[in-house]
Amino acid sequence: MKEDILNYTQNRELSWLKFNQRVLEEAQDPTVPLLERMKFVAIFTSNLDEFFMIRVGSLFDMAQTDANTVDSRSGMTPREQLDKIFEAVAPLYKERDKTYADIKKQLHPYGVCGLDFKELEQSEKKYVKKYFKEQILPILSPQIVDANHPFPHLLNKALYVTASLRYKDKIKEKTMLGIVPVPEFVSDILYLPGHDIRYIRMEKVLMEYVDIVFGQYEVSDVNYICVTRNADIAPDDEALEVSDDFRYLMKETLHKRRRMAVVRLEVAEKFSPDMEKYFCDKFNIKPNQVFRTKMPMKLDYVFAISGNLPDSMKRSLIYSPFSPQNSAHVQEGSVMKQVKKNDILLFYPYESMNPFLRLIKEASTDPNVLTIKITIYRLAKKARLVEYLCAAAENGKEVTVLIELRARFDEQNNIDWSERMEEAGCRVIYGFEGYKVHSKICLITYRNRNEIQYITQIGTGNYNEKTAALYTDLCLMTGSKTIGKDAAEFFKNMSIGNLNGIYDHLIVSPTSLKQKVLYLMDEEIRKGTSGRIVMKMNSLTDVDFIEKLARASQAGVKVDLIVRGICCILPGVPGYTDNLRVMSVVGRFLEHPRIFSFGTGVEQKIYIGSADMMTRNTEKRVEVACPVLDEIIRRQINHYMRVMLSDNVKARVLQSDGTFCKKDEEKPPIDSQAVFMEEAIHAKRSAPVKEKSIGAWLRAFFKR
To answer: I need a labelling partner for 248 at 20 to 30 A (CA). Which of 123, 567, 624, 653 fits?
Structure first.
C-alpha cells in the first residue's frame, strides 16, 4: 500500500495554507462583526508569520542538509515544496490585502479610521509632526550603509524604514541606503485627538519625516520592510553537556533564534530591479521570497482598538459578550468532594476553568493532601494556577512540576515561571532530551483514613487561564482509583527518566498511544460495515494513521474526522477513502480538543487527550490520553461530536482534490459554537431545578 498512498494524500504545508485561507474566509464573512473580521485578518497574518518561521525555515534547513529527501505524502523534495509554497502564498497576499482594504473602508462610518498621512486634516498633521519631533526623533537609531557603516542585522519581524540617499552637494555621487528601525518600545499606532478612533501607524509617520532624519541628504524611494527569520531551532540541535543547566541552554537558544537566516522579505512599495537584487544578495534569498503587501505588516494593535471601544460601538463592531459559564455539573462547595463522588467534565470556553483552579486551591490547604503533580506546557502571563501550586509547596505539600521549556515562542515565559515555582519550594523538572512533554495531566494524592487515594485531571488543552476563554477544550476530573494509579506511575516514570512505562488505562506516547489507537482502529476494521470511527483533532499527518484510515474505509467502516488544520488524507478518493469524511470548523473560538471514538453503543470506547495524529506527537513527544469510563460523560462527549458533525455554518468539508466547500445550506443552520454557548447559558440557568436533558434542549433549540 506504500506505493498507493500518493493517490489519496496531500502535502502537509499546502494543506496548512488551505486551513489559513479558511481563517481569511472568516474575515470575509459579512455575518461576522467588522472588528472581529479585522482580528481574523490579524490571526491569518500571525499564522503566516509563524508558518514561515517554523515550517519554511525547516524546509530550508532540509534543502541544505538533505536535499533529496522526499515527502512521503506528496513525493516532493524540500526545494519543490518551497517553490509550491511560494507559488501558493502569493495569491493569498493579494486576497488578504483586498480583505483588509474592504474592512478598513467599512469601519470608516463608525469612526474607526486608520489613515495615511495625506488623509490627515491640517491640525492633525501639525499634531503628528510635533509628536514626531518631540517623542520619536530623539529615540531613533538611523544608519547609512557604506564602506564605513556595514549593513546592520535586521531583527526578526521588526519594521525598518528604508530610503535611497544622496549628498545634496554631490549630485554625481552614487546613492547609498539609509535604514531607520521603527522603535519597538513605542506604540504601533499614534492616536489622533478627537472623539473618533482616528490613528496613523508609526511606520507611516517615519516615512513622512525620514527627510528630517537624514537632513543632509536628498531622500528618494522611501519604503518600509520586514524580514522573517528561520526560528526552527531546538536545544536538541545544540551540544548539551551533562553539567549544563537546561534553563541557561534555553536562554542561549532564544538568543540564537534572533540571528537565524532570512526566509522571507516583506515590502510596502515595489522594489526597483536594482533594489530587489541588492536585498536578495544581502539576505541570500530569491525574488520569489520577496512579498509586497499593501496592508500593515503588524496588526496587533487591532486587539487593543477592540478593547478601547465605547460601549455604543461595541454592539456593532465586536461579538456579543460571552463569558465562560459556571458548569451545571459543579455545585457550590468543595470541588474535591464532588470529584470523589462523580467524574466531572468541563467544556472550555463554554464552561469556566474555575472548578479546576478551585480544586488545586483546595488541595493546597487540605491537611489530607500529600502531593500535587502536574505537567505544564503553556501558561498565561498571569497564572493563578502557579499561585496555588506555590502556596501548596509553602504549606508543606510535595509539589512536582514537569514544565516544558521548549514550548515554542513561550520559552521565556516558562523559564520565568519555573524560577518562581522553584523559589517557592516546588520540585521543577524539565522532561527529556529529544522529547517534548506535551501532556496535560495533574494528580492529587491524598490520605483517606489509612488508604492512599487519587484525584486525576486529564485535559486536551494547556493550563492557560487566558486561552481557556478562547480555545475549545475538554477537562476531565476523576476520582477513579485505577486511573489515579496509572497517573502516579506516569509521574514516577517522568521523574526517573523512563519513557517505557506500562499502564493499565492511560495510553502514553511515545510507547503505547499510537499502538493502542491503531489497535482500536483494527477492531473497527474487523467489524466491516458495522464499524464506526469518529475522531477530532488539530492535525493529521502520520502515515501509519493515514494508511489505517484508508484500510478502514476500504473495509466499509464509516469514518468521520473533524480536523481543524492540516489534514494529509484526502476523503472520497474512489477505491481508497470512499467511506471517509473530513470536515473543519473555524469560528469565534479556536477548536482544540483531541477526541477519539471507536464503535457504537455499549461497545463504544472514547479517549480524550493531548495528542494529534502527527508523528511528532506520537513518536517524539510525551502525550497522555485517557479512557472516558463514566457513562454520563460519554453521553456528553457524544452529544458534542454530534453537534459538531451537524455544523453547516462554520464547517467546511474537505474534497478529494484538497479544496474545502460549504455544507448543504438547505438544512436549518447549525453553528456548533453558537449552540454550545446557548447550552452553557441555559444549563447555568436551569441548574437549581431539575435539569432538562441536553438532547431534549438541543431539539428545542433547533426548532426555533
So the answer is: 624
